[in-house]
């Protein structure tokens, strides 16, 4: 692990800002959509709170920011593990699995961006693909990271942190399975006109509520998983990029030099 060095760029607040942006976006969109009567007050799907204006604007804006920060965090975690492997050659963390985790995390971040910009009411299939990629890819990603944490215990991650991340991973997998299974079962029984505004009189209503509650749990578990990595981010420093400007005069002087002929 690289220790924090003076003069280097630190990313102490990255995950904190990511978690806060996610929570604020979800909360504001829920409050506005319920207040305007766009969704029922009892556990709508998170995506449904970003279907209509003006909350759709807040939803897209906040989730796009979160998607970018999420992708940056995944990239930094990937390089953290590369550095750890260099300093600990006997570790069980393989470059291949690290690359797979990076790909899954990046795909999950892109899926979140798709969810933000393709509303379920307008582009349903694309939105569902984005949500599936975000949640499933994210669940597998955090599962792999939990195992990496075990490999890095006790030098980087504590045993209690490993247990917490493992617990969150298991809970996320269970909640995601319940969410998908109950959603499919509820839709097959639905006898109303608008799948956004379910009522207790509709068939499959109970399954629908179980599915939406499970989705909110998955989202909160994701935020909780992100928060667990904040202490490690305080120990990561990255050199700022160095830029070199090639002046026009130097370009001309180089291009005017005679070239050797063979």
UniProtKB/TrEMBL annotation:
Transmembrane segments: 58-78, 99-119, 125-148, 168-187, 207-230
Keyword vocabulary terms for this entry: Membrane, Transmembrane, Transmembrane helix
Any single Gene Ontology cellular-component annotation: endomembrane system
Keyword Transmembrane included in the entry's annotation: yes
Bilayer topology term: Multi-pass membrane protein
Subcellular location: Endomembrane system
CWH43-like N-terminal domain location: 11-233
Family stated for the protein in its record: Belongs to the DRAM/TMEM150 family.
The protein's name: DNA damage-regulated autophagy modulator protein 1 isoform X2
Major subcellular site: membrane
């Amino acid at each position: 692990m690289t220790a924090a060095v003076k003069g280097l760029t630190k990313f102490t607040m990255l995950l904190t800002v990511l978690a806060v942006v996610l929570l604020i976006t979800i909360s504001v969109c829920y409050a506005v959509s319920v207040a305007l009567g766009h969704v029922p007050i009892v556990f709508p799907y998170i995506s449904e709170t970003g279907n209509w204006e003006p909350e759709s604007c807040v939803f897209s804006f906040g989730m796009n920011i979160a998607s970018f920060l999420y992708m940056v965090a995944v990239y930094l975690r990937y390089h953290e593990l590369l550095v750890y492997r260099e300093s600990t050659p006997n570790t069980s963390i393989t470059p291949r699995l690290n690359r797979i985790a990076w790909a899954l995390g990046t795909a999950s971040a892109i899926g979140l961006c798709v969810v933000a910009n393709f509303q379920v009411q307008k582009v349903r299939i694309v939105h569902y693909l984005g949500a599936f990629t975000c949640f499933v890819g994210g669940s597998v990603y955090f599962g792999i990271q939990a195992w990496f944490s075990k490999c890095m215990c006790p030098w980087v991650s504590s045993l209690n942190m490993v247990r917490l991340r493992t617990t969150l991973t298991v809970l996320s997998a269970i909640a995601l399975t319940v969410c998908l299974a109950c959603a499919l079962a509820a839709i097959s029984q639905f006898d109303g006109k608008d799948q956004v505004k379910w009522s207790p009189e509709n068939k499959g209503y109970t399954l629908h509520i179980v599915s939406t509650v499970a989705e909110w749990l998955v989202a909160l578990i994701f935020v909780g998983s992100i928060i667990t990595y904040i202490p490690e981010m305080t120990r990561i420093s990255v050199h700022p990029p160095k830029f070199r400007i090639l002046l026009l005069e130097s370009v001309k002087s180089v291009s005017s030099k005679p070239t050797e002929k063979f």
